[in-house]
Amino acid sequence: MDSPGYEALPRGRHHLTREQVVASQRERLLQGITEVVAEKGYLRTSVADVIKRARVSRETFYEHFADKQACFLTAFEEGAELLLAMVEKAAGPEGDPALTRLERTLAAYLEGLADDPAGARTFLLEVYAVGPAAAARRFQIQQRFVALINGLLREDDRWLRLPDPEFASRIVVGGVAALVTGKVAEGDHGGLPALAEPIMAHVRSLIDPAG
């Protein structure tokens, strides 16, 4: 099934520069593999599926990527960078309370995944089918989320009183990842934002057990 939003680049004379054409082709391939993998699964997705969805030639595909895995890993990394940038921006000014900043960050993360069901399924579930290279990169991305969350929570003195604040941050991020992956596996993308409230309640219980 062709994506209705994809239109082939104009043939013959046009006003696009070579750089614009190349950038458009690359973006379409990255979006194409994200969508097709979400629909068919990584193992059942072929290069032919991707170029059909992106509406480019096989030659064009191999001008950009060595193989299907290289295309997937690029899409994964660029998608993760966009999500990280979005949640970092959502945190707001450093002078705001740590828990307020965390709540904004968490809301942006959950809403970002809810708004992109194909990306969520591809990068949270199908990434495991790609192999060790993808698993390693997913772990690296998760460590960056740990650093982000730990940096936010360390602004609250109560978090620093925990036996091991960084380990606690890893537990929080790991728990969020498990909850989110479960929702995506069930196809309940719309239910992702609702996870924010119980997650925040748990974090508050860690820093203020009597609260």
Automatic annotation (TrEMBL):
<feature type="DNA-binding region" description="H-T-H motif">
    <location>
        <begin position="46"/>
        <end position="65"/>
    </location>
</feature>
<dbReference type="InterPro" id="IPR009057">
    <property type="entry name" value="Homeodomain-like_sf"/>
</dbReference>
<dbReference type="InterPro" id="IPR001647">
    <property type="entry name" value="HTH_TetR"/>
</dbReference>
<keyword id="KW-0804">Transcription</keyword>
<dbReference type="InterPro" id="IPR036271">
    <property type="entry name" value="Tet_transcr_reg_TetR-rel_C_sf"/>
</dbReference>
<dbReference type="GO" id="GO:0003677">
    <property type="term" value="F:DNA binding"/>
</dbReference>
<keyword id="KW-0805">Transcription regulation</keyword>
<keyword id="KW-0238">DNA-binding</keyword>
<dbReference type="Pfam" id="PF00440">
    <property type="entry name" value="TetR_N"/>
</dbReference>
<feature type="domain" description="HTH tetR-type">
    <location>
        <begin position="23"/>
        <end position="83"/>
    </location>
</feature>
<protein>
    <submittedName>
        <fullName>TetR/AcrR family transcriptional regulator</fullName>
    </submittedName>
</protein>
